[in-house]
Amino acid sequence: MKRRHGIVLLLGLCVAFAAHAIDPLKFDSRAQELRFQHLTRELRCLVCQNESLLDSQAELAQQMRHIIYKQMQDGRSDAQIKQYLVARYSDYVLYDPPLKPTTWLLWFGPGAIVLLGAAGLLFTVRKRARSAPAAPPPVDDEDW
Amino acid sequence: MNRMLPLIGFVLLAGLFGFGIWWNTRHDQREVPSPLIGKPAPAFSLPLLDDPATRVNKAEMLGQPYLVNVFASWCIACGEEHPVLMQEARQLGVPVIGYNYKDDPDAAKAWLNEHGNPYSMVVTDRSGATAIDFGVYGAPETFLIDAKGIIRYKRIGPLTPEVIADVLEPKIQALKQESP
């Protein structure tokens, strides 16, 4: 019985904390709320940097959510809101980095390395095929 | 040559990872680069800590370089930075404006009374709204603003005697040569 009380208490606390975590932002429509969630999920909290603005409990993140909310109410587009934040906190606030000369390495680096590896492999295989003897090779000491 | 390839690959990778470790010990990965360097400081109008009826705005500050030091009584790193400012602030040759960030004015006053006041004036931003325009995301942070109101340098984290001697003072000297 006691144990059950404990569980109920724990659940109650969870609900209390969850309720606390939600900002009292009122949205006109479900679509607007989804747009807000989508936008804040793409933005980085600057205090706890592994969290999005949507998830973060940092005071600054909460303040920024309110700013974003207000700008949405004022009819600003997602791009304008992002620009507002980038102008103050650089591309660092974006979880999805923009494509520009300084991020080329980031965007194309992995692909370039794969291509380089594939080219190297092709080159080696072709070279071996060309130099391979027609008859089976004699017993080799280093046959492994 | 072909038999050396795996070794070469290994050495290259080890070099890359080694560089990564070295790079990350030299740079704070959490540091958010400021896009405001070289750009005009945002307009501000903030009340003085000692006299909230009086506000200081950006236009009044034009004409001479100055430092803005973001601090708060709740900020632990500011406590580490404070003795450095107490010692160095007067010798920098530019006004050091204290920017009291998201703080209770009474707590800030008590903190300055206890530890000393190195600032030529202290402005308050209790809500932190103006600080967002400056790209502040914590305390302490320090901005060097030139006579034309352009942000020239930003330090994230506490000022140390080394940072002041190696980075800040040369930048201040350069600014003074620019504007006679």
Task: Provide a descriptive summary of the structure in words.
The complex is a heterodimer of chains A (144) and B (180). Chain A is mostly helical and 144 residues long. Chain A folds into 2 domains: 11-97, Cytochrome C biogenesis protein (Helicase, Ruva Protein, domain 3), CATH 1.10.8; 99-129. In chain A, 60% of the residues lie in helices and 0% in strands. Chain A has helices at residues 2-21, 30-41, 59-73, 78-89, 104-131. Chain A starts with a helix and ends in a 13-residue tail after the last helix. Chain B is of the alpha/beta class and 180 residues long. Chain B has 2 domains: 1-30; 31-178, Glutaredoxin (3-Layer(aba) Sandwich). Helices cover 41% and strands 19% of the residues of chain B. Chain B has 6 helices and 7 strands; from the N terminus they run αββαβαβαβαββα. Chain B has helices at 5-26, 58-61, 76-88, 105-115, 129-133, 161-178, and strands spanning 45-47, 55-57, 66-71, 96-101, 121-125, 141-145, 151-156. Chain B has a 5-stranded mixed β-sheet. Chain B has a two-stranded antiparallel sheet with strand order 1-2. The interface between A and B is medium-sized, with 16 and 17 residues. Chain B: Keywords: Cytochrome c-type biogenesis, Disulfide bond, Redox-active center. Chain B: Residues 35-177 form the Thioredoxin domain. Chain B: This is Thiol:disulfide interchange protein.
Question: What's this model, at a glance?
Answer:
The complex is a heterodimer of chains A (144) and B (180). By secondary structure, chain A is mainly alpha-helical. Chain A has 5 helices and no strands.
SSE topology sketch:
The complex is a heterodimer of chains A (144) and B (180).
Chain A: H1 2-21, H2 30-41, H3 59-73, H4 78-89, H5 104-131
Chain B: H1 5-26, E1 45-47, E2 55-57, H2 58-61, E3 66-71, H3 76-88, E4 96-101, H4 105-115, E5 121-125, H5 129-133, E6 141-145, E7 151-156, H6 161-178
Parallel strand pairs in B: 3-4, 4-5
Antiparallel strand pairs in B: 1-2, 3-6, 6-7
